[in-house]
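ARCHIVE CARD
Drawer: 12
Card no.: 0347
Subject: one protein chain, sequence and derived structure
Cross-reference: see card 0346
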Amino acid sequence: MEGLEGFELAPYFERWVLDNPERRHLLPHIAGTVNEPEEIAYQEDGKLRHYKYVEWVGHHVRVTTTADGALFDAHEDSNYTRKKRRQNS
């Protein structure tokens, strides 16, 4: 998949991101979000959430990776965008 070279893909990612037409527009932004995040949040289960604001999308994109770095999930996170705007006000 173009833009995802070098990333391992979890089955969940393949099913809920690659096969989901409503999320495919995020694919060009996934590598940048993982490689140059604004923030990383650690989950108790070992997964990491990578956040980056994407102007074209109009919200932050959140990409979740497994503890070993495989792409697990990706979606727009408008709640995170609103939270960041409140913090910066």
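Annotation on reverse: Residues 11-88 form one domain. The first strand starts at residue 39 and ends at 42.
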